[in-house]
Design goal:
Chain lengths: ~110, ~110
């Protein structure tokens, strides 16, 4: 499709629970990116994929965060043992090149 | 110092006004530059790419000054619907297409 589809739109988890977010990139786009937007508009890069291969994971908190992009499946971002500070909007984006991403509508994660 | 800096605003302007935003970036080797628009915590939407030669799209004009490492966005004849946060974005120099975001400039166009 012509949009990046993220699910769910909202997710509420108790501290210590697992959270799993999904992203279906635009068909034909080779690159997938995950960003975290916390209050005050700050975007933090988490990880990117080129097809199913990790392209850049320099932003990932290694201990609790993991991500995958498998063939014929939506990409996923999983947070084990969520903490209050993980509360944020998580945006996925896809692109074919450096000429601008298309973002999904985001998943708002609230950890209580 | 942040890699990409913007005045957070808010800029409150009347309808019909012309408003300009600037953004500075610290890495002189940065290669691609964009303005995105974000409404009320929705997803960022690409407004325009920015080139040294300047580019214009209707009421919007963007300019890149590589020597001074700043990017500008000019909005002419502001509409109420232009109210949003404008994000300056620069790609990382690592060749990974990673975006470095400014914190955004809030614009409110008043009737």
């Amino acid at each position: 499709g012509e949009e990046v589809a993220q699910t769910p739109k909202h997710l509420v988890r108790g501290e210590g629970q697992k959270a799993k977010l999904y992203c279906a990139p635009i068909k034909g786009h080779s690159y997938v990116f995950w960003y975290q937007q916390v209050l005050k508009n700050e975007f933090k890069f988490l990880i990117s994929f080129q097809n199913e291969n990790v392209f850049d994971e320099t932003g990932m908190p290694k201990e609790r965060f993991s991500a995958k992009c498998l063939p014929n499946s939506p990409c996923s971002l999983e947070i084990q043992a969520t903490k209050l500070e993980d509360s944020a909007v998580y945006f996925c984006a896809s692109s074919q090149s450096a000429d601008g991403y298309t973002f999904g509508s985001g998943t708002r994660l609230t950890v209580v | 110092r942040k890699e990409v800096e913007q005045d957070p605003g808010p800029f409150n302007v009347p309808e019909g006004a012309t408003v300009a935003f600037n953004c500075t970036y610290s890495n002189s080797a940065s290669q691609s530059f964009f303005w995105y628009r974000q409404d009320c915590r929705k997803e960022p939407k690409l407004l325009m790419s920015v080139y040294s030669s300047g580019n214009e799209d209707g009421r919007f004009t963007a300019q890149l000054n590589r020597a001074s490492q700043y990017i500008s966005l000019l909005i002419r004849d502001s509409k109420l619907s232009d109210s949003a946060t404008y994000l300056c974005v620069v790609t990382s120099t690592s060749g990974t297409y990673k975006y470095i975001f400014g914190t955004g400039t809030r614009l409110k166009v008043l009737a």
